[in-house]
Amino acid sequence: MRKNLLSLIIASIILLTVNTPQTFAAEQTSDQVVRIANQYLNVPYKWGGSTPSGFDCSGFILYVFNKVGIKLPQGSDSQYAYGTNVSKAELKPGDLVFFKDTYKAGISHTGIYIGSYSFISATNSGVKIDSINDPYYWGEKYAGAKRIIDDTVKAETITTMPAGQYYDVPHDFWAYSQINSLSKAGIINGYDSSMFMPNKKVTRAEVAKMLSDTFHLSPSTNHQFSDVSSSHWAATYINAVAKEGYFTGYGNQTFQPDKPITRGEIATLFTKAFTLPAGNSSQTFNDLDKSHWAYQAIQTLTASSIAFGYSDQTFQPNRETTRSEFAVFLFRALQK
Description:
Number of strands: 10
Oligomer: single chain
Largest sheet: 6 strands, antiparallel
Order of helices and strands: HEHEEHHEEEEEHEEHHHHHH
Number of helices: 11
Distance between the termini: 8 Å
């Protein structure tokens, strides 16, 4: 039934889609910076590194901005002296965000803001995307932001991608068909300049929005979580999925909307939202025993062939999920 519903949605949108490519002002410098930065996700950390063989935080900034012809000094504290101060509420993609008291007192870490309160930076774990409001670390260390880029629109034009296609999701990308189908159905969306950012972690708020759209839930103003104010962009969607019982918060009445969702959380969420029949996986996971809080949900999810384990016989229930991974899980669930 869900498969037929998805097919009808996709077909209707295809009929309404104009296939003639549209044009708009060429990619701005800020968009270039975000696109270039995302190309180096997972590059390892290297103290003093400023090349794709290894970056430290300021070296990563140097390398990316040099690609668009902007020269900056080495060191996050030195970079903080450049540009124009910008408030958190006025952040735009391409702005530099700074953090204090990480490995030393004062300004000690910098990253590139990419939108949706997320930034990309070179951390001890490599180049990765985090939330500037992360309540466990970055949120309390946020020190401010600077606008380095004076964007002006270039004269040439570039072509927008057709509906469901993105410059950073080529046809041979492992999740291309699922991203393409769900995008055409209006369930998932990309970013400016026809970018999808497939390796960006998907947050609990974003998942709430997608499930709300998937099941056509009525937006709800019934406030349920202390950390989701009525002004939060996803407040009505979070309230809607919570009302349906798909999502529950944490023990302290918080939802943690900007926290990336884990594979274990998705198992529990999908088991409820798609009313999956209980089952036992044919796979054995050496990092999962019956005492794990999501054990049965993971068994059900894998038995339904919505998610699978890894080649080392692990499921990695605490692993944060990327946008491309979630698209594949959601697409498979809709086929059931």
